[in-house]
Specification:
alpha/beta, inorganic pyrophosphatase (n-terminal core), Diaminopimelate Epimerase, Chain A, domain 1, 6-stranded parallel β-sheet, 6-stranded mixed β-sheet, 13 helices, about 40% helix, binds guanosine-5'-monophosphate, binds manganese (II) ion
């Protein structure tokens, strides 16, 4: 038996939207990760089995190849490639599900269409501070992933039987990727009860791990070597590590989306490092990824210095300016807010 976390009233309201709606759009955040794609496609499969024929997943931009094995991934509509079609889908939707994000700005240019739409909107998410743009907000930050939330939501509607193997694979992939393959944020026993149920649906969890984590290119491995050998700066006084990569460096290794996935986690394997930051120059902005172990709230760091956010141990942000400036901001930030002195600072936040 899984604890009832989601309020009954929210379940019933969202269920009614599902029963009554004909046309559904599922949207998720920019630079979609495994949980974003896994939860979106998990919901897509559920709604399809339920009998809904008009269900589209719309994402702001493309996602890594290692999530494209998920059933339904090839039909995901990418706004950057098909802006007019994406807009039309959102305009015509009866119900919009907002998965794995807590505020409109996380979906970039899709935000204005989603906010303006007359559709019923349901947020299912696990980030702190959900903003009020949805009719139903199902958001619990203590949950390890949105995919876990989706599983709970479907079960609470009494429709566990409508989760098919394809949907179960997507939900498992989301739960696995948002917990670093169950190495962080994953101490709750019920996670494993849910995994047991997904295995009963016929998923091969070991194969899913291989499809996500063991399909990289030779170039990516060489870039990882370069990043660790040449670019990693360890600041032992502050228990911190930084890796930054410029566009030129990325191009040298023929970077494709997803190639730097996991880089930010690597320095945390150094004894004593509890805060790791990876700064990557992108074509239109600089992307910052932050990870911590223990109590250091890297989401507050992301918010304070880069206007971003996320979870206590995994967060991100963006910077619009040169890479060197982003690095300087990080270095200056570290002087005032670091794993040695955060308790004093966060007391006032
Ligand atoms: P990643 O480092 O994998 O891109 O992001 C880790 C987590 O940080 C994401 O799951 C998300 O919760 C959060 N995050 C990443 N980028 C941003 C951002 O630009 N703004 C906010 N508010 N959160 C972000
Ligand atoms: Mn997530």
């Amino acid at each position: 038996m899984i604890t009832k976390i989601i309020q009954e009233e929210k379940i019933q309201k969202a269920k009614k939207y599902i029963e009554r709606g004909d046309t559904f759009v599922i949207v998720t955040h920019m630079t979609p990760d495994g949980d974003a794609i896994g939860s979106s496609l998990g919901l897509f499969h559920f709604l399809s089995v339920y009998g809904k024929d008009n269900v589209s997943v719309v994402v702001p931009n493309d996602f890594p190849k290692f999530y494209k094995w998920m059933s339904g991934a090839k039909d995901v509509v990418i706004y950057e490639k098909y802006p007019d079609f994406s807009e039309q889908l959102i305009r015509e939707a009866d119900v919009i599900f907002c998965l794995d994000f807590n505020e409109p700005k996380r979906i970039g240019k899709l935000a204005s269409f989603v906010v303006a739409s007359d559709a019923k909107k349901v947020m299912i998410d696990h980030h702190l501070n959900p903003s009020e743009f949805c009719d139903v907000v199902i958001s619990y930050s203590e949950m390890s992933s949105t995919s876990e939330m989706l599983f709970r939501f479907i079960c609470r509607m009494g429709m566990f039987d409508l989760i098919n193997k394809e949907g179960a694979e997507c939900l498992y992939a989301g739960m696995m990727t948002d917990t670093g393959s169950f190495t962080y944020n994953s101490n709750k026993a019920e996670i494993y009860t849910i995994i047991g149920e997904l295995i009963k649906k016929g998923i091969d969890k070991d194969e899913i791990y291989r499809r996500v984590s063991q399909v990289y290119s030779e170039n990516r491995l060489r870039m990882m070597g370069y990043a660790l050998y040449e670019k990693m700066k360890v600041n032992s006084e502050h228990h911190t590590a930084l890796i930054s990569l410029s566009l030129d460096e990325l191009n040298h290794f023929h970077y494709v989306t997803g190639d730097t996935e996991g880089f930010v986690n690597m320095p945390l394997s150094i004894e004593g490092v509890t805060f790791s930051v990876f700064i990557r120059q992108d074509t239109d902005c600089v992307k910052i990824s932050l990870r911590s172990v223990g109590d250091f709230p890297c989401n507050l760091f992301a918010n304070r210095y880069f206007g971003g956010g996320g979870h206590k141990n995994a967060s991100g942000g963006e910077y619009y300016g040169p890479l060197e400036e982003a690095v300087s901001i990080f270095e200056r930030g570290l002087m005032e807010f670091n794993p040695n002195n955060f308790e004093e600072i966060t007391k006032h936040e």
